[in-house]
Amino acid sequence: MTATIEPEVGKSRRRKEDERLITGRTRWTDNIALPGMLHLAVLRSPFAHAKIVSIDTAAAKSAPGVIAVYTAQDLDPDGSIGMPCAWPITPDMKAPRRPVLAAGTVNFAGEGVAVVVARSSAEAHDALEEIDVEYDELPVILDMEAAIADGAPLVHKDLGTNTSAVWKFDSAEAGTGGNVEDAISSSEVVLKRRFRQQRLVPAFMEPRACVVDPTGTQITMWSATQIPHILRVMSALTLGIPEHKLRVIAPDVGGGFGGKIGVLPEEMMALLVAQKLGKPVKWNETRSETMLAAHHGRDQIQDITISATRDGQVTGLKVELLANLGAYNGLVGPGVPILGAFMFNAIYKIPAYHFACTNVYTTTTLTDAYRGAGRPEATFAIERIMDELAVELGMDPLELREKNWIKHEEFPFTTVCGLTYDSGNYEAATEKAKQLFDYEGLRAEQEKRRTSKDKVQLGIGISTFTEMCGLAPSRVLGSLDYGAGGWEYASIRMLPTGKVEVTTGASAHGQGHETAWSQIVADQLGVAFEDVEILHGDTQSSHKGLDTYGSRSLVVGGIAIVKAAEKVVAKAKPIAAHLLECAEDDLEFANGKFTVRGTETATTIGDVALAVFAAHNLPDGVEPSLDSDATFDPENFSFPHGTHLCAAEVDTETGRIKLRSYVCVDDVGVAVNPLIVEGQVHGGLAQGIAQALFEGTEHDESGTLTTGTFADYLLPSAADLPSFTTDRTETPSTTNPLGAKGVGEAGTIASTPAVVNAVIDAVRPFGVNDIEMPLTPMRVWHAIQHGTTDAGGPGRGEAGGGLGSIDATGGAQ
């Protein structure tokens, strides 16, 4: 009998890539140094909106070490190059051309105006000071509502409007639910709220960078990108470079969070300059450039109307959004709110639903995908208004949620948006979270503090969420006018010594692919975990793929690996049968061995690989190869879910917030590596809590970004956050063979409303039902003093208004 080997899937292995990443003994884009390499530095506009009257580059061209200085006229004389947008959400979407360098007009503070090429980075940056640009300032447009008002100044005059597109979904028109206006007009309770999603910066550890080597017959680009395959295709289409003559490599990448999902003007600039000069060039942005000119996230105004019966049954939901695109369209920016459109109904059985989104241009940095991309915004709105509805009805907010959520026995469940949730158990996750959190005990303590008028009030925040992730299927994305599919590719190469090389189209930037993929392959082929090598991020070694975003790596890319492994076994089986002199039907495969059923006669898949290499004794007509590949296009999204509970103490005399307890129980289906899941959840929680309490961009009235450094744009460190209590329930996905669901965005999606709900719950006795994020002590204090629902008072950075830090238990100092 074949011995049983402990499966790898489900094992908490430490990540095999961490040694080189943590010690820095690896290759980042900025580490790359090529013979004769030149350096680029970009001159950026200090104005948010202005005509370029003239650019004098003469002094810069004669500066030490400078090789060349280019403007838009030099790199794109006929004005034909524009950055791609892969998601035109409506046929009539207004889309301005985004140039490589500003031509004629700058439309946000930080837009590139000229590029210096020099022998060193320092010389290139020094020469920027020698460029003389004359600007004629134009009116700035910062506010979304003002931008679409009659007579508003235009960001792009040729468009004739600041409205890019209006996208709508109506359940009555789609045949997936009732008429929302009828539901609202006939309901006993109707509640309206406005929520503001502030603008955020994807503050990845490694700034964006690229190196281009035009030497030889093929151009090679290294880029700190999430999307090497898409970057290759889009670069070829944008610049007319033959795709087979362009190789794109994403080496180890220091974080992304959606912030490295774009096709950048600087990447196109580097390609153009490298070809023009015939020399390798490098561009590496400064941290200030990241804050200023890398794309931003979120930035929505959400007007929400919910209707219900007096006993708490939700009858309708109406959502009207304004989404700030910034000055241009990002690669997928116009579609980000559309991803959220399908998630406002969340885990609830809402019978009637209407969604409308207006995408607006302003003179600000463009927005695009940021961790969760549309789903955190939707979850925030529905979980906030469910709390508000519970207050209106005098119900416990968990009781209200349970009354309306989909019960576990009702899966699969088709929602009011037409999506089919395949599996879930919201009751189990919530019950476990309540026990870990001591929900009843904290409610009792809260009541005691309120009765005694304690200066430190306790609030309890709830977020019960689900999300659609594993972005795919291709047909669904096509129906939404997305410019690409949702499939993923993998290949497996069996080496003669029994070792395994795997190529994957999913490109890691910190997720632990090399470890998780090795675990999957080890189980599928019965080889040792250590004997698997994962190759990724290079369009030459892994020639096909759709890359990494939207929690799709495991549930799409990982399944492609499973499918490729199945083909390897299928190709090996007739060869094993030939070697063992038996019929194929008599063979069983388990733990890496082909065994003749009912006997001890066996051969390993490694033995078969060596026999294939020698090719001395193969069945007639069988090619000497076990190598296999697969392209997987899922039939459905995956739908992880969870319950997050937060206890926050608020000092009513100072506005100080202390996160006393945070419990989350997530259901991500089958976890390939629970340790990686834990890390993903922790990282997501940090980002979601940061939106609630810390982060947010600010502009002055001239459109200048006033939060352009980490001294002004506040990020929490590990020491600034509480210890998290995390756990899992498991309802396997029914739409993939691993039973897995995505996890990369879960913590970010769920945590923001949990924290805000906790703070609002604490100060609600003072007449406060909303405070604009981030919930700084000054904003909280001002709301308590005035019983207001807006931000009010001095903002961050003004006297007494800074958030300061949060102590190890989460309290603002």
UniProtKB/TrEMBL annotation:
Annotated Pfam families: Ald_Xan_dh_C, MoCoBD_1, MoCoBD_2
Keyword Metal-binding in annotation: no
Top-level taxon of origin: Bacteria
Alphabetized InterPro entries for the sequence: Ald_Oxase/Xan_DH_a/b (IPR000674), Ald_Oxase/Xan_DH_a/b_sf (IPR036856), Ald_Oxase/xanthine_DH-like (IPR016208), AldOxase/xan_DH_MoCoBD1 (IPR008274), AldOxase/xan_DH_MoCoBD2 (IPR046867), AldOxase/xan_DH_Mopterin-bd_sf (IPR037165)
The UniProt record lists the keyword S-adenosyl-L-methionine: no
Domain Aldehyde oxidase/xanthine dehydrogenase a/b hammerhead residue range list: 23-139
Biased amino acid composition, Polar residues: 724-737
Organism encoding this protein: Amycolatopsis plumensis
Name this polypeptide is given: Xanthine dehydrogenase family protein molybdopterin-binding subunit
Ranges of Gly residues composition bias in the record: 790-804
Annotated region (Disordered), positions in chain: 724-744, 788-813
Keyword terms, alphabetized: Molybdenum, Oxidoreductase
